[in-house]
Amino acid sequence: MSFSMSDRIVEIGMLVGYLGLLLWIGIRTARRVQTASDFTVAGRSVPWVVVMATTAATMIGGGASVGYVAQVHQIGIAAAVVTIAWHVQLVFTGLFVAPRLRGLNLVTVGDYFHLKFGPLAREMAVFNCIIFLVGALAAQMAAIGHVTHSILGLDYATALWIGAVVTIIYSTIGGMRAVIATDVLQFAILVFGIGLASAFAFYTTGGFSGLETAAQAGQFELTSHRSLLRTGSLFIAFLLGETFVPPYAVRCFIARDAQQARWGVAGAGLFLLLFLPTATLVLGTAAQVDPRVQQELERETDELLTQAQTNGVSLSRPEARQQANQSALPTLVRTTLHPLFAGLLIAAIIAAVMSSADSCLSCLATVMMEDYYRRHLAPQATDPACLRVARMTTLICGFAAAICAWYFSNIASILEFVYDFWAPTMVLPFAVGLFWYHPRRVPAVIVAMATGFLTALGWRMGSQAFAQVNWFKIRLEWTADLSPAVVGFVACLTAYFVAVLVTGNNSTGTRWFQPDNTSAST
């Protein structure tokens, strides 16, 4: 179907107005940013209600909205089920982790690893933080590109840069205070918008019975497109892959006190658990059963194939359709709702994406300033110098992530990639430091981190190749469905217990293994 000029003007007007509002908030908030602490942790003065809003807005990013509505549209209920893991880990983090982290008065995840496990563990943790944040930010930037492309009709690259530039500007000038201020607005808009869209789709399609009748065969069967092992493996990967990640750790750091951190983070997880998986399932299935959406996605598939042929790029029709499916949610909104409501929903989708993008960007800039500049380059740097560096790194990192999103545009694939390395390397050490800590376990933790990372890397690169070997194919083909995150985490866990048994009560005097017990108290 084609959209009328008046419809497009309304949608574009809503989008431009919303982006302008975000820029105004960023500029206004910048006046309150006087110190590096204001920029990185918002002065540690945020009440629990705002912590809840900014945490939930960060969670409902491009992957949880655009990316996984597209996945439900493509593979069915299994995609919605695995997203439950995101919210479960937030509830756990809020109840049991957030108060402990807030009590340490830290700024970055690297600070925590240095405090518990020493400088070598810190450097390894910072490296993994950068992998996660660049990948997660690239996924959000890709979602910005897909949504803006769907609205403005521009090519993906141009659409990507329009949304990315706005996000980079307000994050650069306002830091975490601007991120929090925009997140509260975005939380209100996206909950109302996504709730309205899913309720409308649910009503017009006849509820779950109507959706099940009209959907493709197997849409509501857990194993119709993926094996149960693959779905379970992804659930664990999503559970571990989001646990203790920098954007949520920072939400613990910015709270007014430990209890405000607990109820803010746990409240966000509980709210999203009751709301988002169902909304994702309804919207993805509604997009699948609506012939107007399918017609529009087929048209976009043809355009992608034509563009690829013109540019001399190899692209199969299934690959082109997979790219087109990334626009399933904005296309559903535009084809089923009045332009005024569609414009509001488009703003909600943009809000979801930008709220995660700005959080990742702020955390990435903080990591570069605190863990590299202040630690290695200028330990005696003044606060104004650190603030300048933080803003400069926000700008640079934002454009670097946008370039990554320019080349890698599949949102779900990018998220799976970053989970594959975060879970095997970071989750177990974090848990050991919180619940089973002893200084003599430091060498075991470092061995486990290295083992988990290398195993995940090897499995990601080699599992599919092994699956083609006859002996492997006959006897162990099922293991190809295991996520690298799961395989790496099991290797990390095994290496940790073996190393604990080997090292026993022996401790090392090497400074690289010495915890920094002077910076905070546990």
List the keywords.
21 helices, globular, Sodium/glucose cotransporter, 522 residues, mainly alpha, disordered C terminus, single chain
Quick overview:
This protein is an all-alpha fold and 522 residues long.
Task: Please characterize this protein's 3D structure.
It is a single chain. The chain has one domain (5-420): Up-down Bundle (Sodium/glucose cotransporter). It is built from 21 helices and no strands. The chain has helices at residues 5-30, 36-41, 48-59, 63-75, 77-102, 109-117, 119-152, 156-204, 207-214, 228-241, 246-254, 258-289, 291-311, 317-325, 328-336, 339-377, 383-407, 411-435, 442-466, 470-475, 484-503. Helix 1 packs across helix 8 (156-204), helix 12 (258-289) packs across helix 15 and helix 18 (411-435) packs parallel to helix 21 (484-503). The longest helix has 49 residues, at 156-204. The radius of gyration is 23 Å and the shape is globular.
Task: Give me the CATH architecture, please.
Answer: Up-down Bundle
Tertiary shape: globular
Gap between N and C termini, in Å? Answer: 61 Å
Overall domain count = 1
Q: Mean pLDDT, rounded to whole units? A: 82
Structural class: mainly alpha
- What is the tally of beta strands? 0
Q: Any low-confidence stretches, pLDDT <50, length ≥5?
A: 518-522
CATH class: Mainly Alpha
Order of helices and strands: HHHHHHHHHHHHHHHHHHHHH
> Any idea what the radius of gyration is?
23 Å
Percent helix among the residues? over 70%
| CATH topology (level 3) name | Sodium/glucose cotransporter
Biggest sheet details: none
Percent of residues in beta strands: under 5%
Number of helices: 21
Q: Spell out the CATH superfamily.
A: Sodium/glucose cotransporter
